[in-house]
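Running low. Got one?
___
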Amino acid sequence: MILRSMATKQEQICMITSYKNLLEYDSLIRYGVPRVKFAAFLGMVTAVLSSMIESEGDYYACYFLVKLRLLLSMRIIAVGQWKD
């Protein structure tokens, strides 16, 4: 077993077991606490909402094509022009 005082810096980092000990080592958090700007947050929210709207449009287009194909096949059967 390696004592903490005898371990290298890399081994000491591997021995970290709690969040409090994690914050003691500056090599793991080099640039400080992450900061989020309002513009970045607003941009992410806008991107998520536009992606949701676009996906809904894609689902609607697929539904429309399936419905159209179903209606056309029903019309062909009703008229009696079914061809294999």
